[in-house]
Amino acid sequence: MVCPICSSKQTEIKFNLTDEHQVLCCINCGVEFLFPQLNDNELKKLYSENYYVSWGISGKHENESTKQMKTATFHLRLNRIKQYIPSGKILDVGCATGYFLEAAQQIGFEPYGVEFSEYSSSIAKKKFGEQKIFSGTLEESNFPDSAFDVITMFDLIEHVCIPEQTLTKAASLLNKNGIIAIMTPDTKTISNNLMGKRWTHYKLEHFFYFSRSSINYIANRCGLDVVHYERGKKALNINYLYTQLNIYKHWLLTPLINIIHTLLPAKLTARNFYFSIGEMVVIIKKHASNTL
Question: Could you report the per-residue pLDDT of 221-259, keeping only the tens digit for each?
Fold first, then answer.
């Protein structure tokens, strides 16, 4: 099997995720990838309204507990972004229903979004306007070149079919001094080493899995430089984990969270805590030679 990132033939099967799908690892660039990927029809079915049940979202009603939890995480990301870009036009790729864009707008950014799911993009359009939210993939979008100061991809790059195309398109939409902020699972973490194939990030909708070195590799191929790396902390609460782990069941974590959810009082199950669950945050800029 040829690596879809570097075209090396030095790949090996890491494990079988299902009877039909395997996770492979490239010896050359270090990226892990799902084979075969879900097809377009499977993806459209996956990213329907039911996908957001794990967020506690149903119909036209958003879950306020989930929203405040995710907004707390997004403020962590925005604090980092503002160290590079204090304000301007921001494009959130994979914007879902627009939680991040709402937080960005509140501190002075002009919000735009891209969302593959027709269900969640329709909610975002009602918040920000039809012209500011594109329904589809970033590669299909019609935003003008060099239009954005910041492009964000939180829990996104692992979902795309061809990451190099996505990053190359993002680079074309970024102005010369702009940044791309990415959060994605990191395969070189303790949680990955301990949990193996039971790592909670190994899912059929996740096509690629990067490490610090492999995200550097693909960024450089796209004319980009990683200028900052950190472990990605998220705001979480017991209610959210309870919902998530009873949809994405785990042999150990699901019964454990069920016990905790039953024993704790409601005010504690809704309280946020900050934790790294095996993800990284990187800030990426264009090569200096590409900004002249």
Answer: 999 999 999 999 999 999 989 988 998 888 889 999 999
Based on the fold, state whether residues 97 and 121 are members of the same structural domain.
yes
Same domain, 93 and 123: yes
| Chain-centre distance for alpha carbon 169 | 17
Distance CA 65, CA 68 (A): 5
Domain check: are 121 and 258 in the same one?
no
Rounded Cα gap, residues 14 and 22, in angstroms: 8
The domain tally of the chain equals 2
Return the closest-CA partner of residue 52 out of 117, 111, 100: 117
Question: Quick check: 292 pLDDT over 60?
Answer: no
20 pLDDT band, cuts 50/70/90, is: very high
User: Is 21 a domain residue?
Assistant: no
Q: Is residue 31 part of a domain?
A: no
Evaluate whether residue 250 is within a structural domain.
yes
Residues 186 and 210: beta-carbon distance below 8 Å: yes
Give whole-number Cα distances, 218 to 54, 86, 184, in Å: 31, 27, 14
Pair 5, 218: CB distance under 8 Å = yes
Range(s) of the domain holding residue 94: 39-235+280-290
Asked if 253 contacts 53 with a C-beta cutoff of 8 angstroms, the reply is no
Q: How do residues 194-224 score in pLDDT, each as one tens digit? A: 999 999 999 999 999 999 999 999 999 999 9
Structure tokens at 234: 């998220």
Whether residues 168 and 284 fall in one domain:
yes
Residues 282, 224: Cα–Cα separation, whole Å: 12
Beta strand 148-154 with 174-185: parallel, antiparallel or unpaired?
parallel
Residue at 3 is within a domain: no
* Mean pLDDT on 258-280: 95
